Task: structure prediction
Amino acid sequence: MEVGIAAIGLLCSAGIGTEGARGGRPGPVPGFRPRAYISNRKSLKLMSRAVKLGVSAIALASGNQTELISATAPPRRAMFVGSNPLGGALDDLLPALDISTNSSGVLDLGSFATEGIPRIHPLWLVKGLSNNVLGIASMLHDFQGPNANYCQGESSGFLALHEAWATITEGRADLALAGAADSLLQAKALFPGRRLGEGAAFFLLRPWEPSDRWLVRSGAGEAALVQEEPDLGYLGVAGAVVGLARALLSGVPRATLRQGGLSLTVAATS
Amino acid sequence: MTRHPRRVWVVGVGVVTAFGSGLAPLTEALEHNRTAARPPLPSHAPKPSVPCLAEYQGTLPECPPFRDDRKVELLFEAFRQLAGLPEALGGRLGVFLGTGLSSVTPGELAHDLYPHLLGRSFDRRSLARHLSTEGGAPNRHLPGRAARALATRLHATGPVQTCFSACAASGQSIADAAMAIRRGEIGAALAGGHDSMTHPLGVASFFLLNTLSSKLCRPFDTRRDGFLLGEGAALLLLANPGAARAAGLEPLAVLWGAGSSADAHSATAPHPRGHGAFLAMERALDDAGIPPHAVEQVNAHGTGTVVGDRAEALAISRLLPESTSVCSMKGAFGHTIAAAGVVELAATIGAMCMGFSPGTAGCLEPASDCPINVQQEPLPRAPAVVLSNSFGFGGQNVSLVLAHPLA
Result:
């Protein structure tokens, strides 16, 4: 069975959607307003910046495909996500750490237990979960099918895309959203000296239809290898899929992602 | 013995739980329905109302450069038990791990962050200077590094992946590995998971979510009120039957099928009727090509929470015959979070090999709102086919069908 891409959702510092295909430099996604994509304001409170980007990219990829999605039973809709475990939730711990650290800078576990813990937000653990894009987006779009969340560095997006391809070819789902999201703008302390950025790209895959602009195949073939998106700075787990989305949307005929002896090539069909 | 082309052999097991290192102490404890719950060390108890944890008491190998990362030490202790088996299998090997949110340990906080605290914020400049001289310190927080380290050690040339789907993580990794073997992408895989959240921050996190038991963990019991927090790691060596035979290896058990689903219901609560759990189990049976009545025992996720146990029980009762035996291991060695799926699968294999079916430690009076046949005590007869569930916070569900080699 051949697999097609019905839609791409892209957010990066060059722009949103097809505007993000060219140009750009490291920095925030311009004009990004999560509420434009996520109507459930309650769920916004549980989201880090990277999660907002990911859920918004999924909304973009599915926005023009509501007919296709609603024609597919929710249990046949799959979702695979590459995400960064650095959810930015450390700041939420600061009040507890502050009160529990003595003047010598040593953590007092007794103080942490009695005085620190009450200062931590009850949903701290939930906010920091790496699988939040997957959990929240599957809820918002009613995707009940096969799923997984991968944290394997820069390979995460490829693994998500590969599993989506495999799930469709094996007939375990009729529709799959796959991609990755990351925001490293606040992570300068962890990546000193690097140009950092943010971005997200998600792909809506299905069994091949003639109206699909792109075809996904296993194997490398003769295609440009996408490993990251250097122009936009280091995008962490999202680099390769943002690079792939930009290549496809800007008209590159073939592009390949690979890891561990596996590879996928996406080719334009016209 | 099965020659079904879609079935994947389990030819090696390494496991660490609060009962000890290896399958022997684990199966011995399960055969006697014991619990590993012990009062936590004073530094681990954030409040007196968390009476017990299930922690591994032995020594663990040092794993440089994974300084102060207990879950990685647990993983390498499990890996040590496989001693040369992965290398014995020819062909491409993949590494598939499930891991959890335990990256930020108190030791790391103390070492990396506390010296740079300025009131309610970090001195980010001094922190950046510190990290830049640490030689890879940021990598300590990346969950994919343990899988990469195992792959490097084994010279594995296949895919390397880390699944991070809360308590479903290691179950999903097993499923992904099995699918990759079936597709012929690899001949064998080291698959499993590891987690340790028994440190103060981990205990605090679950305490704040009101999910820990205030007494003893009692899955599916009338008086259940939360789970026992455990820690552990397990690795299964999975192989294509042909590759295993060529290496002279016999199966300990056979993975027949897998299914995953999403609740798509709530970010913080399971579907009240266990719809996602039902879908995962139904898919696993379909993938295995067996009818519901072929399942002889369910190893339930069964954490001991009021809503979680009820939802799972409703899903099981909707799918499987009323007489199907259901057990939970969470009262025995606790909820090992991201490692739960594979640790419980390892325990199931151990029980199969020893010829018994595990009971449900802690369940004294099965609850009427859980309409299933809870097996409270171990029975001296191994089930031929087991359905094992793992459900993650965030709504990810995975079910695996495991069978005795002679089934």
Strands of chain A lie at 3-12, 15-16, 77-82, 147-150, 175-183, 198-207, 214-218, 224-225, 254-259, 262-268. The mean pLDDT of chain A is 89. Chain A has one domain: 3-88+128-268.
